[in-house]
Design goal:
The chain has about 140 residues and is of the alpha+beta class. Helix content is about 20%, strand content about 45%. A hairpin with a 3-residue loop joins strand 3 and strand 4. The chain is elongated, with a radius of gyration of 17 Å.
């Protein structure tokens, strides 16, 4: 689990191997995961306020969770949205392109849409999800190799 802080907001990346025992369809499992993340955050930071939590899940990557602070107050209040089977794109240089994946070219960058679990996540520059993925899929050029 990797937790990054950006001001009052947090971005949590969890690889699929770390959450193999979590049922994303079970609200109790989701609450347990959120409690674990909050405990890790408050170990090093004071956290309070209203947060919008967006959870994106993907069978190949795992989960990306956004904690976005909406309002300051003296307690923690959470609103949780879960997007199951999100499409994740992987930004990479052209040295990693091959026929085993679908490739998109957009704004001078290459993005991989993997067909299966054969992608080495350590070799990608960035994992993209949410609205930017919709934009790349709609406006990007599908590359044939």
């Amino acid at each position: 689990m990797n937790i990054s802080r950006f001001g009052n907001d947090y971005l949590i990346k969890i690889y699929k191997e770390e959450i193999k025992d979590i049922d994303i369809y079970d609200i109790d499992d989701i609450y347990t995961l959120i409690k674990l993340i909050i405990k890790k955050i408050i170990k090093n930071n004071n956290i309070s306020g209203n947060y919008q939590i967006n959870i994106y899940t993907n069978d190949i990557y795992g989960m990306i969770i956004e904690f976005n602070k909406i309002k300051e107050n003296s307690y923690i209040d959470l609103k949780i949205n879960i997007t199951i089977d999100s499409i994740f794109l992987y930004k990479t240089n052209n040295n990693y392109l091959n026929n085993n994946n679908t490739i998109y070219y957009y704004k001078n960058n290459y993005y991989i849409l993997p067909k299966d679990n054969n992608i080495n996540l350590l070799e990608v520059e960035e994992v993209l999800y949410g609205n930017i993925v919709k934009e790349i899929l709609a406006k990007g050029i599908k590359v044939s190799i």
